[in-house]
Amino acid sequence: MPTTGFHQREIETMPRPQLEALQLERLQSTIASLRANVPVMAERIADVADPTSLDDLVKFPFLRKTDLRENYPFGLFAVPRDELARVHASSGTTGKPTVVGYTSDDLQVWADCVARCLRGAGVEPGQMLHNAYGYGLFTGGLGLHDGATEAGINVIPVSGGNTERQLMLLKDFAPEAICCTPSYALTLAELLGDAGPDCSLQVGILGAEPWSNATREAIEAGLGIIAVNIYGLSEVIGPGVSCETADRDGLVIMEDHFLPEIVDPDTGERLPDGEVGVLVLTSLTKQAFPVLRYWTGDLCSITREPAVCGRTHARMSFVLGRADDMLVIRGVNVYPSQVEHTLLAIDGVSPHFQLVVDRDGTLDTLLLRVERDDSESARSNNDLASEIKSEMRTSLLLGVTVSVEPPGSVPRSEGGKLSRTLDKRTL
Ligand code: DLL
Hints:
GMP Synthetase, Chain A, domain 3, four-stranded antiparallel β-sheet, binds 5'-O-[hydroxy(phenylacetyl)phosphoryl]adenosine, 2 domains, alpha/beta, 11 helices, 25% strand, 21 strands, nine-stranded mixed β-sheet, single chain, 29% helix
């Protein structure tokens, strides 16, 4: 059974008073850099006094994805082009992508953060990591790659796609660890079938999309691994902003580099530890693209209680949804994660689903496409559909039309992200 290790033990277990002093010092220099090097930000924060305590952060305005779009491509960078070592971009839902930049020091920080994630998850130097995150502008592939190299872990840079080849390499190279999205891990588990639990893998470092503890259990059983949740976003650095350890008791935030706040999605007021709200992140060491109070849109809670393994940095819960991907259907708020949770409790269907929202006249309609799982089930599609319908009514407080389809019919990812909602009302 993999157990948690450390990459930078002294920092990861730093007493909180010392950590907070370091954070304040770094916050002050981040703000000084924004004032000196990013005219758009300097203007925006001109009237706000420099912080003398971490609590002063609430006086600063939020930075949002729209700000990145408006300053496309390099308008929020704090260094000249010739000091950049790399750029990445994340696909926007509309129009241009959002572009982020790194100096070579930034790349080193990022590699250290990801190395902490991998070592914390229990991957040992000298072991092999099958990296099925996409390489390219997406931060997943190269982010995990550099972190593994930093930690002395051998990387198989498979990238996304070509599942047949992935299965062959998993069998032939016998890696101890894999990183990919949770939905792709489920796909691999399904394809491996009975051979899954006996494969060489011991650890999965999974993230980049919302998932739940229930999905974790299915992946762990299907591949015979422990599955840890890794979180991050390109605007802040990429994967490695936070990650669970092998203990799987919350995602440890790399707090010496990223200062977390949880705020009310409607009012923006800061919320106490333990309450669910929007995660807002401030970078503390980034040179090329410092972010001050970046509104992630991700809903979670945090705790600052020390972890069993001795880590002192704040830990966040699983992402429970997005402040903005919440579907409002006939006045009812629906989170895809709720649907997933409910489906996993029903025998005979796979956890892959798609919610299709449409409008019939003025009435919103919700179609839930699910697939039968591969197990021999004597139950008819009608039987399954009516059970799902009634469970959904209980959990979502909403009537749902259910379509039970053969295995493989719901669109799923090839190393990329699963699109669990299709809102035809906005098309
Ligand atoms: O998804 C970075 C990443 C790569 C994270 C590989 C983990 C592993 P973006 O493409 O910029 O970056 O998307 C960021 O994805 O705001 C969340 O909404 C979502 N997300 C990322 N990780 C998780 C996770 C990468 N573990 C956006 N759980 C974020 C839930 C996640 N959502």
